[in-house]
Task: structure prediction
Amino acid sequence: MHISDGVLDARICIGGYVAAAGLVAYASTKVKREDIPRISVMGAAFFVASLLHIRIGITSVHPLLVGLMGAVLGVPAVLAVVVGLFFQAVMFGHGGLSTLGVNAVIMGLSALAATGMFVLPARRWSGNHVLLSVVAGVTAALAIFVGTALTVAVVLLGGYELRGLAVYFTAAHLVLAGVEGVLTGFVVRQILRIKPEMLLRPGRTPA
Amino acid sequence: MDIDRYADLDSPVHRWDPRLKLPCLFGLVFVCSFLRTPVAHFLALIVAGSLVLLTRIPLRFVVRVLRVPLRFLVLLVPLLALTAGGPHSFGLAGIPLSREGFELGVFISFKALSITLILVAAFGTAGVHETLGAFEALRMPKTLLAVFLFTYRYVFLYLDDMRRLRTAAALRGHGLRGGRPRIVALGGIMVMLLIRSYEHSERVYAAMQLRGFDGSYCTATERVVNAPDGVKSVLLMGIACALLLLDRS
Result:
């Protein structure tokens, strides 16, 4: 879901930075000082995990993991997303510097959508790990759909004639959504077996 | 991936205080995004390339950084020639292409390459800790800055962890043959990485508390903004304004 440099009009890039600042400000209000190591350390782990390739036929994809980040970190996932995108742009040239704000908003909102979709099921079905894993997988796929829709909307509003790019992008991310849904479901199932408190913290489990 | 590998070189860009360098270069990035005419795009690429030449960073490193956007642009230009712009006005091997779409692809490529070169000049000429110190001086929120700092610190640790986990999985025959990982094996690696990081984060917080971490960022590097820094900043902003005026004229 990264939009590269040069694809968007400058006004949208600047607007993206302004919106990202607002999103970061909102996420920061949900962060206590003791959360900072968990957000950062796990954010680094997510960043590294997203570098893995998954082969699909003749091509390969990188998992985005926004759904899983939203489920594990909650609202502060937005901060991990912003930092991850910055390091991806600076260290690997993925995404872009001018489009960092827009990318942060798109992926941040996707992570927030995943958080919103996962919180209630996690409270309600905390004892049923299989069901929760399926919910997590569906949530992750839906988060990719949300991000893809936002990306396509931004690209089409970007001031250039980019319909062909939008179609190609949508097709590629439909495949990614399926892959990421399966991967997230599997990962959540294993985490619930080994370390359930990562996903079912006191704020989420019923008393 | 270590963009600051050549941060120890000596050049006018290296000596430029990051507290002025970063805002000026970000300004130039946005100016590049505003440009619409071919001449302005070309001149912006020349300016960005000249900046990188001034840094004295080895060209093979710069080419390595440019490889990633180039891979995307190599796909983008023909895609736009096929699908964007007006009626198809020329053909290549019997395939109808649009001149407007092709030009759009070339302009986007010029912008993307210019911005990537500016990125090298901005972040390749100072260590990451110095860059983060500049972010603090530029009033980046403390929470976000702390997340930046700790994420950077642990990325390399988890890269090493991931290499070890992949090797261990391959030795156990868990579907990682020939660089074609299966989703289950990958998922297992991710699970181990995430659980380790979760447990690690609890120890990191305890260590931070013991060391009296109060959320503020301290750096040993002390920079003083001097006259050459001011001259470089004014000069670069002047060039950026000239590019904009040329583009609009």
